[in-house]
Write a structure and sequence with these properties.
The structure is a homodimer. Chain A has about 180 residues and is mainly beta. In chain A, about 10% of the residues lie in helices and about 40% in strands. Chain A has two helices and eleven strands. Chain A has helices spanning about 5-20, 25-30, and strands at about 1-5, 35, 50-55, 60-65, 70-75, 90-100, 125-130, 135, 145-160, 165-170, 180. In chain A, strands 2, 3, 4, 5, 6, 7, 8, 9 and 10 form a nine-stranded antiparallel β-sheet that branches. The first copy, chain A, has a two-stranded parallel sheet with strand order 1-11. In chain A, strand 3 and strand 4 form a beta hairpin. Chain A is globular, with a radius of gyration of 15 Å. The interface of A and B includes residues 25, 56, 94, 132 and 159 of A.
Chain lengths: ~180, ~180
């Protein structure tokens, strides 16, 4: 669990990366950047920052911000009721990201698996995203991604986000953030 | 109808504005920028450039690029079959845009109505969008927008786009582009 101080520092770092990529946020948006550590307690290694621009019952748009070599862990978006599962398009805006999806494993792959969590990664077909490149991930298919040496900004365009239903390969993961008081 | 030479020049101008806003396109995307003059033959005054990143049966994302004082004319997105009409979120990335929607007219308003087309504008509730500001337009409601003195880049996040069903207030408008050979 991250402390409020740690969350605030992570938000500031994400804001700096967004600024490097000329992505403008309002002051209010900066204070509301979501810091996802997935409950693993190793945000620098496994986590990402998220700016949700809009999430209606029809579509969603976000910026995903990663620090250098930071990894968003493997997951899929399953069907939920009448929704056949979130479909999402990742478009790299700044930096570089290696996206891994189901398919023929790429060898050698560029990303390094997060130490201690190697077993939680099972798909290794590599898509390299540099600014201007994009890729659309079908519903209910496994994927994960890791930023390159500068970090990355990725615009995510998608159907409705229902993060609480995401299925992670790593059973230890808790998707929804828990923030501790600094005294905890 | 615009000639191929005029379209290419308009694409180059849009690419320059996108570059000023640090929005990176691939070379292929630059050649496919849609130049919409709405059949009015006055692109500098009434028109816009569009980069479609993705348009699936669930969601759509575009960049809209306007030159200084350029106007996207008043229209609405009606229901189409089971679709209750396109819902869209405009987020200003660079420059400035005045968006007009249904509601209490703003006086004085900042935009100037395109000369000769004044009767084709009927909604005047003004939303000023600067970088970081955004606004969501409900389905089937009239709206139009005009760029400020620098031009503008607006990210559009939406449900599926079906441009051919858009309903414009100006009956002269043809939404889908027609391009003439340079000899025409």
């Amino acid at each position: 669990m991250m402390t409020r101080t740690q969350v605030t520092a992570a938000q500031a770092r994400a804001a700096t990366i967004l600024s490097a990529g000329s992505v403008v946020l309002t002051t209010n948006e900066q204070t509301q950047i979501e810091i996802a550590d997935f409950g693993l307690g190793e945000f620098e290694r496994t986590g990402l920052a998220i700016v949700v621009y809009v999430n209606t019952d029809r579509y969603c748009a976000k910026e995903l911000v990663l620090t250098p070599q930071q990894t968003c862990p493997e997951h899929r978006h399953p069907p939920v009721g009448a929704d056949r599962g979130k479909e999402e398009t990742f478009r790299c805006r700044w930096g570089q990201v290696w996206l891994y999806v189901e398919g023929e494993p790429t060898a050698p792959m560029q990303a390094r698996l997060p130490a201690g969590s190697e077993e939680a990664y099972t798909v290794f077909h590599q898509i390299t995203l540099i600014p201007g490149a994009q890729y659309t991930i079908p519903p209910n298919t496994k994927h994960w991604f890791q930023a390159g040496p500068q970090g990355a900004i990725v615009s995510e365009f998608s159907s409705t986000s229902r993060d609480e239903y995401d299925v992670f390969t790593d059973q230890r993961i808790r998707r929804l953030p828990e923030v501790a008081g600094d005294a905890d």
